[in-house]
Write a structure and sequence with these properties.
Largest sheet: 3 strands, antiparallel
CATH architecture of the domain at 37-94: 2-Layer Sandwich
Oligomer: single chain
Mean pLDDT: 78
CATH topology of the domain at 37-94: Double Stranded RNA Binding Domain
Helix content: 10-25%
Distance between the termini: 81 Å
Strand content: 15-25%
CATH class of the domain at 37-94: Alpha Beta
Number of strands: 5
Low-confidence stretches: 1-27
Length: 118
Amino acid sequence: MCPGPPVEFPESNGRAPAYRGSAGGAGYAILEVFAMPELRYAVVLEPCPLVEGGGFTVTVPALPEIVTQGEDVQDALRMARDAIELSLSVRRDDGDEIPPSDAERARLEIVAVSVPAA
C-alpha cells in the first residue's frame, strides 16, 4: 500500500521546523516535528589575522560552547546560525536549559586601557 499525498509542514516564524527521523519499518520513516520558536542571539565576529588566512572567528556569549569561523561576514554568520541551531537541538534533546534571546539586550562598548612600560 502506498502512502497518501505528502504532508506539508508549515514553517514556524519563517524558519523550517526541526525534524528527527528514525526507521519505521516497512520502508517508512517516522519523523517527529519540533516547532522551535525563533530566538535571537548576539554573536561576536573577530577578524582573523591575514597571516592565518583572514576571515572571522565567531563566538556566541549566551552559548559559550560555540566557537566557529567563516571566510567572510556572510559565511561567518551562516556558520554561527548552523552552530546555534545545533547547540539548541542538543540542549533540547539532553533536557538542558535553552537560554532566552539576548540580541535586544546585547551592547558593545569599548574600554581603553594603558599598559605601563616594563
